[in-house]
Amino acid sequence: MAQTPAAGADDGGSAGDPTDSAAPPPHPASAPPTPAAQNPTPGAPTTAAPDARPQSTSAPDARRMPPWLPRAFVLAAATVLAFGAGLWLLERLRGLIILLLISLFLAFAIEPAVNRLADRGWRRGVATGAMFLVLAALGAGFVSVLGSLLLNQTTTLVQSAPRYADQIIDWANHAFGAKLSKHTLVSKIPVVGGELSRNLSALAGNVWGIGATAAGVLFQGLGVVLFTFYLSAEGPQFRRTICSLLPPHRQRQVLRAWTIAIDKTGGYIYSRALLAAVSAVFHYAALTLLDVPYALTLALWVGVVSQFIPTVGTYLAGAAPVLIALTRAPSTALWTLLFIVAYQQFENYVLQPRITARTLDMHPAVAFGVVLAGTAIIGPVGAVLGLPVAASLQAFLDAYVRRYDVEEHPLTSAPAPHRDHRP
């Protein structure tokens, strides 16, 4: 007799096995599946079950300070304080910085001569001392010559004062119809003498301040001498100390810049000294021919002042010979002035381009602007230091800045002079 299959046999399970018929228990953390999930409809889009984890409903507080803001405030305050402290320190050390700049300039100026003496077997300290003695002798000679001129002129003026007074009175009476006389001037002497005595008394009362100023100038001069001596005598050790703090490629750049500064500064000083010597020789010959008093002193004055005082030195140098020549005769003063102007043109267009072409190849307008800038920054010292510093900077830029060919354009080419060819 055939047996009937048991219920549930079409599902592939046995009715008598309890492990096969029991469904697995649901996961306690998940919800029971929905009928749609158990029997999905064919072709229907499948949607993901929503996340059962609780969502955070708390938003960041917009009124809360960002964590980086306090650090930014502290950094800004520290920067401002450091900048203010730097300005205050720079103002307090301004005098020392100027002394160091002057000393460095002088050390650069005598470095070529010291190096030549050192190559011949001299010790650098002895060579530097020898250069100091030479400069001191030249300065003392120049000052003594000018002092003798000033003393002689003062003595001549005092001795000739009555004659000059008569000439001035006669000229004023003739030109303006005045009725001046010696008695009128003598009657005014007590008033002038009283005012002069009061000024001298005030000057004597301030003698302590004058003495303190003189002592300060003397101390600064000794400081310049000391710094210059050590910068020149200990130059190699000083440069080695600086280069020991830098990587090799930076060392080469620093040493090249140092070499350029020495060449330009030393060349500037020596070229100016040569121009001063040539100017003194020419002016001595001219003033001697014109029979101007104190020809040698005035020639030295013109040579030194015109070359070592930028821009205004030419006018200061030429004024003294003209005034001294005026005491001889107006025609002598006129010829002196004409010679000074002619020689200045000869120096500007013939001598100076050939002598200073290697040391200071700079446009006159640029040189004038450099002098004004140096004067505005650190005063008269900047007027003297500005030109060699600018020459060194120009040479450094020429060595490191690349230049390109300029395309032809009407704005970059000077027009040729027009010549009218007429038959």
Provide a descriptive summary of the structure in words.
The chain crosses the membrane at residues 72-90, 96-114, 126-151, 207-231, 273-292, 298-317, 329-346, 366-393. By secondary structure, this protein is mainly alpha-helical. 71% of the residues lie in helices and 0% in strands. The chain has 16 helices and no strands. Helix 4 (94-119) crosses helix 9 (207-233), helix 11 packs antiparallel against helix 12 and helix 12 (295-308) runs antiparallel to helix 13.
What profile does the largest beta sheet have?
Answer: none
Gyration radius, in Å: 46 Å
**Total number of beta strands:** 0
Measure the end-to-end span.
152 Å
Structural class from helices and strands? mainly alpha
- Beta-strand content estimate: under 5%
What sequence of helices (H) and strands (E) makes up the elements? HHHHHHHHHHHHHHHH
In helices, the fraction of residues equals over 70%
Please sum up the structure shown.
It is built from 16 helices and no strands. The protein has helices spanning 18-21, 35-38, 69-92, 94-119, 124-159, 161-176, 182-187, 189-205, 207-233, 235-243, 248-289, 295-308, 313-326, 330-355, 364-378, 380-400.
